[in-house]
UniProtKB/TrEMBL annotation:
Molecular-function GO terms, alphabetical: 5'-3' DNA exonuclease activity; 5'-3' RNA exonuclease activity
Biased composition (Basic residues): 1-17
Protein name as annotated: Polymerase/histidinol phosphatase N-terminal domain-containing protein
Region of interest (Disordered), ranges: 1-21
InterPro entries according to UniProt: PHP_dom, PHP_domain, Pol/His_phosphatase_N, Pol/histidinol_Pase-like
Polymerase/histidinol phosphatase N-terminal domain segment(s): 72-137
Domain of life of the organism encoding this protein: Eukaryota
Provenance organism: Oryza meyeriana var. granulata
Amino acid sequence: MGSRKKAKQGRSKKKPKTSADQALALDYVRAWAQPAASAPPSVPSAADAAGDDFLPHQAARVASGGGGSVLFELHSHSNHSDGFLSPSALVERAHRNGVKVLALTDHDTMAGIPEAMSAAHKFGMRIIPGVEISALYSPREIAGAGEPVHILAYYGMCGPSRFDELERMLSDIRDGRYLRARNMLAKLNRLKVPIKWEHVTKIAGEGVAPGRLHIARAMVELGHVENVRQAFNKYIGDDGPAYATGSEPFAETVVQLISRTGGISALAHPWALKNPHAVIRALKCAGLNAMEVYRSDGKVDGFSELAEKYGFLKIGGSDFHGRGGKDESDIGTVKLAITTLCCFLKMARPIWCSAMKDILLKFAEEPSAANLGKIVKFGELINFDGFSSMDAGVDIVNLCLCSWLSNDGMEEVELEEC
């Protein structure tokens, strides 16, 4: 009996990560994540060859070795969706909290990414262009019916390889958010909780599709509820009497689109799902890469085992909105293990590199101002002033590669001359 118990215990133990494993992971992550202002904006040197495929040369490598860690924040929001802070203010707060790599994942928009990248450059930080996409899980794929699901998408510094295709989906979702908000206000009015449309849109800001948090804030300001949490619990939560859906696509479709456009997909806050096993099983078949498990409150609620069962990378983030209060974690409070970050980057880098290659090749085939705009939408070019004509497509492609890739990265991309 005792021997069987010991054997069972032995099988359940995982091989611990050695200090050597952690040191190698730290070197790998730091080489990608931590820029230094000392590197000249020139052709990559041999010393850069051990570094990353995507780090611009003004962000040089940090020497390998040494202790410490690298803080990634993989879930945050700005005022381009339902956050309180501008992308610049969000980046500054993250910097103050020690964040080295920030993923801006606004709801259904990537409009704040350029401002965030510009602000991050001043602090020597890296931005992962991201977005949190609103979706529905419906086992029978019935339009407008099903469980709300949020999918995080993470892209490389060039952004999605088919940005127009992604933006069409995001635009449709944003249009649906306007309709959903109006339907919620109509339901609230019938519940004797009157709110004017102008009040909600003023809170959301110009050009921002209104979400539930904007409605909740209006409810607080008008004295209908004491706080945002009460607004959700009593009225506009998923099961609330004033809840409404918009024009969200099916979750499997979203995951497939993220994969097709060169991104990494992750299931956001699975603990909020009513039927997590069915959702996760369906998204696994669709190609989901990761799921949030780690939370700032230290709870994992059994989702770690579920992620392991389906082979997902386990990640996490603060889901920071900047509204303040005791119920919100500050940005950078979820500290992922260095080995987790290493696995994330080793999964993402080849996918991001392939997306960059697609973007550059499309420009080389059709060198136009519109296609050039897609290249520089998220990535910064060095010594770009010398190009006054769109005729030199291959030359601009080579300039992009010299700006963004190290020597080993150049070899990996293997672009053929056009």
